[in-house]
């Protein structure tokens, strides 16, 4: 009886392993496919915030557009990685569109200036439908989804991460290989400054460089005369960047047109070329480019040394 019981348990264990092995192999294949697709993208930059309500997605969209205007048209992508609250398609005028599927995989939607966009919003039947997924199911779906996206060759991919430093942003950051760095979005308040510290620690623990801090909603642009007035406290982002010894990328003033353009699906900097906010975004582009150039020069000797070591 004991032998039969042992055989039965052994057989059950064997079947479980058989079922588990193909599943694990399939998951590994997805990760390898994702890595292969990501290798075609020169620079991958995550846009993060330690808390919600700081305008992170608005900054991500307009920063991507600024890069497209700066000579990278049709070579920039945005991954809206906020699974439960995707809003990038609405801001970029693509809400209601569907992703095209072909033999090679899933192709991004194309927006202004040839920007490629991928979002969970494209997969939902209507805007009233919520995404109610538990953690493991959510990550499985994200892995499968990302591994099937055919971005092609891009110069820049901006990843708009969910707010906070919890399981979701952590899993997505670990999933995407060879990140160039993160841009942290904050607002001038002291509460947000405290949260920036958490975002910096989060990035450093993942070994991902902090490209810099953007202070959003910094000052108010009068819609009539264009004068910038400091109706709120300013300088908080620059102060915390200095305290933490990370670059300060710039301030984006409050402009009523930014909200109106986001609602209408027209990226602000495409429509308002000469506004203070657009000029601030274009200056930030140059600073990010400078960071990437410096990092490449720093990495070059290490790569050369590594090649010599392997050759020896």
Give the SSE string: HEHEHEEEEHEHEHEEHEHHH
Radius of gyration: 22 Å
| Class based on secondary structure composition and strand pairing | alpha/beta
CATH class: Alpha Beta
SSE topology:
Layout: H1 2-38, E1 41-48, H2 56-72, E2 76-80, H3 88-92, E3 100-102, E4 105-107, E5 109-110, E6 116-119, H4 135-148, E7 154-160, H5 167-175, E8 181-186, H6 190-205, E9 210-221, E10 228-229, H7 236-244, E11 248-254, H8 256-264, H9 268-271, H10 276-311
Parallel strand pairs: 1-7, 1-8, 2-6, 2-7, 8-9, 9-11
Antiparallel strand pairs: 3-4, 5-6, 9-10
Keywords:
312 residues; alpha/beta; Rossmann fold; 9-stranded mixed β-sheet; two-stranded antiparallel sheet; 10 helices; 50% helix; globular
């Amino acid at each position: 009886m004991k032998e039969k019981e042992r055989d039965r348990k052994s057989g059950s264990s064997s079947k479980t392993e058989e079922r588990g092995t193909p599943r694990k192999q399939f998951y590994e294949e997805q990760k390898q496919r994702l890595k292969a697709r990501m290798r075609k993208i020169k620079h991958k930059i995550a846009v993060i915030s330690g808390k919600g309500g700081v305008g992170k997605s608005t900054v991500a969209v307009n920063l991507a557009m600024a890069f497209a205007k700066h000579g990278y048209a049709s070579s920039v992508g945005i991954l809206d990685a906020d699974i439960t609250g995707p809003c990038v398609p609405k801001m970029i005028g693509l809400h209601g569109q569907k992703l095209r599927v072909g033999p090679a995989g899933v192709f991004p939607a194309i927006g202004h200036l040839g920007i490629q966009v991928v979002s969970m919003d494209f997969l939902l039947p209507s805007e009233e439908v919520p995404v109610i997924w538990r953690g493991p199911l959510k990550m499985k779906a994200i892995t499968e989804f990302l591994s099937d996206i055919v971005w092609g060759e891009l110069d820049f991919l901006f990843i708009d991460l969910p707010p906070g430093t919890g399981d979701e942003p952590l899993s997505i950051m670990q999933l995407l290989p060879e990140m160039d760095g993160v841009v942290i979005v904050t607002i001038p308040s002291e509460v947000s400054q405290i949260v920036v510290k958490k975002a910096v620690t989060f990035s450093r623990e993942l070994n991902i460089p902090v490209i810099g801090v953007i202070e959003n909603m910094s000052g108010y642009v009068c819609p009539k005369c264009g004068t910038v007035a400091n109706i709120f406290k300013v300088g908080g982002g620059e102060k915390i960047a200095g305290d933490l010894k990370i670059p300060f990328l710039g301030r984006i003033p409050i402009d009523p047109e930014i909200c109106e353009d986001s609602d209408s699906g027209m990226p602000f900097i495409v429509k308002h070329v000469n506004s203070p906010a657009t000029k601030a975004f274009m200056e930030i582009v140059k600073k990010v480019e400078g960071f990437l150039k410096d990092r490449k020069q720093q990495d070059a000797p290490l790569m050369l040394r590594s090649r010599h070591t392997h050759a020896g």
